[in-house]
Amino acid sequence: MSWLVTGGAGYIGSHVVRALSAAGMTPVVLDDLSSGHPSFVPEDVALVEGSILDRELVERTLRDYAVEGVIHVAGFKYAGVSVERPLHTYEQNVEGTRVILEAMQAAAVTNIVFSSSAAVFGTPDVDLVVEDTAKRPASPYGESKLIGEWLLRDQGIATAGTDIALRHTSLRYFNVVGSADLTVYDVSPHNLFPIVFEALLAGNTPRIFGDDYNTPDGTNVRDYVHVGDIAAAHVVAAQRLAAGEPIEPAYNLGSGDGLSVKQIMDAMVRVTGIEFTPTVAPRRPGDPDRIVATGELAARDLDWQMRYTVDEMVESGWNARRNAG
């Protein structure tokens, strides 16, 4: 039996693949390689190239590899860009999730871990987000992830009491950074860490998006969580589903503490040894002032821990990016 990782050739998905293998589970990757890289997939892991929108391909992959569960990481993940491309965002994230659930039902695969997002909360009116904090997405991306959670919930209700009853959980994560493997790094042109790394490697001054947020230093505040910790939580969630153990419908993989973009910039200077003062570009649409969440529920059930300091997160990402050449 194996676990299918959609988007498993991407930055986060490939870390999940490695964590599954390390836990003695057998990962299979489905990725259209629109943003993933074949080199991110270990040589001993099967890679099926194709889209999650291809219903026939998804079902065939589930059957061919005797899949017992899906970790659904694939999707269009850029909140700011989703404001400009809402239809594409909904196609990839909503229709893609629906197709996966339909294929799972046809192939009698009953376990799914869904990669959701802190974006489902929008701009919270509380200092510390918990699982049942009001959902007010501020972007089509956040809306699409919330709809994904609804799809899992509704399919779980529809199949309850049958021999194909869906067992599911959604893991909401925040700003995922760093690297747990020198051969894998964040390649997104929209995420803070790679934006800064690329600027520094090119000898340019990094820029940040907005310094007029309603925060103490004017830059937005987020949970920054290490990709290795994120991957480990996915594995424990998959194990609980496969074992039939109780599991919550959703978990926030938060740190309980927030870091501002300015604080991240200060860590970049400390770790890289490159002195700079970032230039300021306009804020990106759909970016809220602050999102910080407790991870207490995930700590209870998924062995969720923040195992890295901010400097260690920066250092691991910086080393992986420089290793890539």
What's a quick, concise take on this entry?
The chain has 325 residues and is an alpha/beta fold. Helices cover 39% and strands 17% of the residues.
CATH superfamily of the largest domain: NAD(P)-binding Rossmann-like Domain
Number of domain modules: 2
Q: Which class do the helix and strand fractions yield?
A: alpha/beta
**Structure annotation, total helices:** 10
For the largest beta-sheet, the strand count, sense and barrel status come to: 7 strands, parallel
- CATH class of the largest domain reads Alpha Beta
Q: Could you tell me the CATH topology label of the largest domain.
A: Rossmann fold
Helix content: 25-40%
Number of strands: 14
Give the distance, in angstroms, between the N- and C-terminal Cα atoms.
37 Å
Rg of Cα set: 19 Å
What's the order of the H and E elements? EHEEHEHHEHEEHEEEHEEHEEHH
The shape, in one word, is: globular
Poorly predicted spans: none
Spatial ordering of strands, largest sheet: 3-2-1-4-5-6-11
Strand portion, in percent? 15-25%
CATH architecture of the largest domain: 3-Layer(aba) Sandwich
Mean pLDDT: 95
Walk me through the structure.
- The relative contact order is 0.15.
- Strand 1 (2-6), helix 1 (11-22) and strand 2 (27-31) form a beta-alpha-beta unit.
- Helix 1 crosses helix 7 (227-242) and helix 8 packs across helix 10 (310-323).
- This protein folds into 2 domains: 2-176 and 224-253, 3-Layer(aba) Sandwich (Rossmann fold), CATH 3.40.50.720; 177-222 and 255-323, Alpha-Beta Complex (UDP-galactose 4-epimerase, domain 1).
- The radius of gyration is 19 Å and the shape is globular.
- The strands form 4 sheets. A 7-stranded parallel β-sheet has the order 3-2-1-4-5-6-11, sandwiched between helices. Strands 12-9-14 form a 3-stranded mixed β-sheet.
- The chain has 325 residues and is an alpha/beta fold.
- Helix content is 39%, strand content 17%.
